[in-house]
Amino acid sequence: MAAMAALQSSFTALSLSSNSFLGQRFSPSICPPLVKSTEKPCPITVKLKRWERKKCKPNSLPVLQKMHVKVGDTVKVISGHDKGKIGEITKLFKHNSSVIVKEINLKTKHMKSREEGEPGQIIKIEAPIHSSNVMLYSKEQNVASRVGHKILEDGKRVRYLIKTGEIIDSAENWSRVIKEREKTEVTAAS
């Protein structure tokens, strides 16, 4: 009770009431100057979901992972619900180290109609698989193997299958992949 009386007397001495400064700034004569912090204010950023985050370098470009497979490689799926299936890689995503394999990991997508009178569709699309869940595959010897690197006599660095010794990177394979890619682009354009 005595503390309350002392507080009221101090308010009357300052000629302020408890309601006079609610919602208003204090005058500089009453309030001591605030010490400015040396830290910069933190800008508000949108928090991304765990699956949307990409690790970035200082220049804000995403960190690209090194992968043991390339477009056009024949691979065997070694884990997941498509385990044991064999297919060819059609696309790489280096920022999250995943691949799309032809006719593997098919997901159902429901498409809305774009125009009036056109019905909607249910289509199958190929979803990405993490690159650690695929292994290079030899069609000739029907065996999956890890990849190794060696330098040939002419100084060319190539990838090869460790179990079979079969060289994967050859000019014939790349020319075949490029021709198939051009065919699919022409058919998609027409």
UniProtKB/TrEMBL annotation:
Signal peptide positions on this chain: none
GO biological process: one example: translation
GO molecular function: RNA binding; structural constituent of ribosome
Protein keywords: Ribonucleoprotein, Ribosomal protein
Superkingdom field: Eukaryota
Listed SUPFAM superfamilies: Translation proteins SH3-like domain
Family: Belongs to the universal ribosomal protein uL24 family.
Name of the featured protein: KOW domain-containing protein
